[in-house]
């Protein structure tokens, strides 16, 4: 399989994992380890904006193997996002930033205009910008032109577990994009992660579905397997859908 | 994971593979090996009703590891099916029989009445009967009562690759069945196989999607991984779907 | 528009309406009148098996305009169904019978084998048999051969309002049937009734969606309009679906 | 039913019709008349930018009854859109403008940033702006704040006839919007138009599905009926979907 490269860094795993909503830090760490993910999102609130990583979570993870992806969750516009990204760079010692600007507290959907504006600024400032956005193909092209390292269109509203409700638009985005496409938000089951990969997505980000599973560690493994399966199927070449049945077995009548 | 038991035989793999439509026997064998399947369907036409297995296909497969599942494809009613099953028992030396009675040559959909009748007779004759049928929950209960070893409801018409179009009914079948439920027909991508397993299906049967893939061996591996992922997710406990967004990251406003 | 003929009787309306679940008989009557339906189902329990129609419901409906369609709801097998049909013929003075055999009290799904058996017997006895069944194309052909006046495949389990979950199979049934196809059960919104008609169904049966609506009379009108719209669209010839956009407006660049 | 008001004008019909793709102007006129639409889109190319309406199409339509909605199709950015709107105002003598900015010629998807910019400018210039956009709830709020008279989110890419692929997002837009929501693009069948209205959309715009139908005039009537049915159902209050069956008929066993 081709490797995924973002911001000059190579990733063997195509499963990105979020760190919110776990019932304990210990469980989160174990799930992340089991997932074999090499890119994990971290909320800045976790470190309370102190300039050192005091959160237990951060101390046990091998950053040679795992890239931290701080997100800007909680900011309301481009200006706040840029400020947050600068803090983040100091705190976490990384240029990677997951840009999340969602002014509406109910559905947490991203703001396309502020996201584009912040992407432009942050890219100029040397950040590796991964913007979380609607599955809007034109916006994705503009983010790419503005210097985004990837685009991260959503499959369904965050935390709904509804899967690829934006499938028709994800297909267009994947077809037209020159930067990696990572499906973010809405993926609630390994089958949905596999579906995203079969469409040709470069990676998926999963958080809620692992964190709130009955057994988060086993669910992390299930997602790992499903992402591999989906990517492998994409590379192996899936068949088309047909209206009529296509017999698998010879059909000449049995007793002729 | 709990093991799957059918006809007194234990199966580690929950992926059943069909042997039709491959471009060569060699490719078929390699794909089957890669799939790690322990149950493969074989059409009786393959051996031309001679009483010995002359087909190259059959000679290279280790029957200690792999159970042959001859199918009755081509028969039009219960009477022909019973006759075919008897031939099959002699030819293949197994009591396992995949019952397929589909009089209509266009969509190859199964006949519920003849299938039930044949199941009753074959079960009495000591066969391990795996009937291929519509995703009809009442019929499934009647087949179970008639002695079917499993039920094999279809996801979509054979060879269409449309996936779980019968999902609402599969859920009911799985909930109510006392015998293993194997989703047969229509599964066109690993994500769809994973979805069936997440619903709680005991196994899936895949043929076309592997056989006609750009790279059948890689696709077989992808299905193997996806089936494992789906089963693991089912056992780990998937979350519900929500209408409203559920934030993964702390949302207290950034600059407060 | 071509008229619908069942049992030698011509129907201008393609909306059949059920009479269960209304909060009052008065509301039911008004809704039926508003629907302009010419075929309404009646449960035999309504008349308590007395040989006269004492139910208020029955007295106010003009049977020259509206065909009563008694159903056998509550029977568990063919034998009971035949008995129920005979009672029904005496009570209601009609040969029309909606055959419903659903032994399972949870999902109320029809029994294919007993339904076929009862259809055969009732057709021989001169009944106009409208069997309620799974969307099983092979079963539909066998019912047709057994003398069914129509087939009534379900869209989704009764009362779920889920719409045409069996769409793929309804299409095949419609394509292959020589008797009218009436989609029964699961239709929860006028849009879903329209969709069934667009596929080429000859009629739809709606009950729950009208009876439990905020305003059942207005909802009955909405279904009436939607059924007409769907049928008209079917006859006018719908376009295909496309993957790529098809511009509606001239696209030559504006300022060239 | 409540009336729809846009730009101070009241509309009895909630079906907007596009004028592209018809095989003749005569057929277009007849279809528009049959649709009873009071808002029809016109492409500026149709009048070749001459300052008089020479197109036959325009001369036969009663503008007291029908509002012309010129669109900016063909422009690539906000600047061109503003220029086009000004021409349009002169040519058509109306402040109504359908804002369409889609730089990509393949999928004709709208540009969110340029659309917002043009909306701001045109609203300040006194235009009644109806922007065509992605089903992006945050963008819709921003367009509303910028002075848009309505929002016109797409159901699927233009001309694909795929229906409400953006359904999850349309629901949020409808819930949150203070201006009328008109579903534009992708609606390929009357059932889909009814579905949009059932969700609570204020109107739908249909073009391709009518223009390319086997019989465009009949299809226009079908859409008219379906839009009415869907709106009526929305106002009458639709029931919820259920997982379990809900019996319509009394279920006490028949022969007890």
TrEMBL record, chains A, B, C, D:
Name of one Pfam family that matches: ThiG
Principal location: cytoplasm
One of the protein's GO biological processes: thiamine diphosphate biosynthetic process
Top-level taxon of origin: Bacteria
Domain Thiazole synthase ThiG: 6-250
SUPFAM superfamilies for the chain: ThiG-like (SSF110399)
Catalytic residues (positions): 98
Pathways involved: Cofactor biosynthesis; thiamine diphosphate biosynthesis
Binding positions for 1-deoxy-D-xylulose 5-phosphate per the UniProt entry: 159, 185-186, 207-208
MF terms in GO: thiazole synthase activity
Recorded GO CC terms: cytoplasm
Subcellular localization(s) per the UniProt record: Cytoplasm
EC number: 2.8.1.10
UniProt catalytic activity: [ThiS sulfur-carrier protein]-C-terminal-Gly-aminoethanethioate + 2-iminoacetate + 1-deoxy-D-xylulose 5-phosphate = [ThiS sulfur-carrier protein]-C-terminal Gly-Gly + 2-[(2R,5Z)-2-carboxy-4-methylthiazol-5(2H)-ylidene]ethyl phosphate + 2 H2O + H(+)
InterPro entries: Aldolase_TIM, Thiazole_synthase_ThiG, ThiG
Keywords: Cytoplasm, Schiff base, Thiamine biosynthesis, Transferase
Task of the protein: Catalyzes the rearrangement of 1-deoxy-D-xylulose 5-phosphate (DXP) to produce the thiazole phosphate moiety of thiamine. Sulfur is provided by the thiocarboxylate moiety of the carrier protein ThiS. In vitro, sulfur can be provided by H(2)S.
Subunit structure: Homotetramer. Forms heterodimers with either ThiH or ThiS.
Similarity comment text for this entry: Belongs to the ThiG family.
Protein name: Thiazole synthase
Organism field: Barnesiella viscericola
Gene that encodes the chain: thiG
């Amino acid at each position: 399989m081709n490797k995924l490269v973002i911001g000059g860094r190579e990733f063997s795993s195509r499963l990105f994992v979020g760190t919110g909503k776990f019932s304990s830090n210990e469980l989160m760490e174990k799930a992340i380890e089991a997932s074999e993910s090499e890119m994990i999102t971290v909320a800045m609130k976790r470190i309370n904006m102190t300039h050192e990583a005091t959160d237990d979570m951060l101390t046990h993870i091998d950053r040679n193997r795992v890239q931290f992806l701080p997100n800007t969750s909680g900011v309301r516009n481009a200006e706040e996002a840029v400020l947050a990204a600068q803090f983040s760079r100091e705190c976490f010692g990384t240029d990677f930033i997951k840009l999340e600007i969602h002014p509406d507290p109910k559905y947490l959907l991203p703001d396309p205009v502020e996201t584009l504006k912040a992407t432009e600024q942050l890219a100029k400032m040397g950040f590796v910008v991964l913007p979380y956005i609607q599955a809007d193909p034109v916006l994705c092209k503009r983010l790419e032109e503005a210097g985004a390292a990837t685009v991260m269109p959503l499959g369904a509203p965050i935390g709904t577990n509804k899967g690829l409700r934006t499938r028709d638009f994800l297909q267009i985005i994947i077809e037209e994009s020159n930067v990696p496409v990572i499906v973010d938000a809405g993926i609630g089951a390994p089958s949905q992660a596999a579906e995203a990969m079969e469409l040709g997505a470069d990676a998926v980000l999963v958080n809620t579905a692992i964190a709130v599973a009955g057994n988060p560690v086993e669910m992390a493994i299930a997602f790992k397997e499903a992402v591999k399966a989906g990517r492998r199927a994409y590379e192996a070449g899936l068949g088309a859908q047909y209206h009529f049945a296509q017999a698998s077995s010879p059909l000449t009548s049995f007793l002729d």
